Amino acid sequence: xxxxxxxxxxxxxxxxxxxxxxxxxxxxxxxxxxxxxxxxxxxxxxxxxxxxxxxxxxxxxxxxxxxxxxxxxxxxxxxxxxxxxxxxxxxxxxxxxxxxxxxxxxxxxxxxxxxxxxxxxxxxxxxxxxxxxxxxxxxx
Length: 140
Prior knowledge:
Number of helices: 3
Number of domains: 3
Shape: elongated
Oligomer: single chain
Radius of gyration: 45 Å
Distance between the termini: 128 Å
Order of helices and strands: EEEEEHHH
Largest sheet: 3 strands, antiparallel
Structural class: alpha+beta
Strand content: 15-25%
Number of strands: 5
Strand order of the largest sheet: 3-4-5
């Protein structure tokens, strides 16, 4: 410890030393690591950047070989969803058209018209054509 005397007060300052790439603080009989030199930090950063670049290179190569499929971007996902929605809409329209054609054929075959008729008229037609007459009971 270093001591200084100012305005009647004794102040102590810890002793710090640089040992290679480490910064140490001397406390009584101990040496406590409190940091590293700037050169060492720059060296670590360079090593880290090299490792990241190498990992990205490996990743890109695996993507090229088809071993890894990169995740789709938000735009790609939205585009796929739009295409799927168009396909669903086309299928629904085709189904609706088929059903409409079947209804038209049934109407032509039976001479009935269900679409666009007034409900009273259709009820009258059904009741006059489809009236079920009660059976006469036979006594056995």
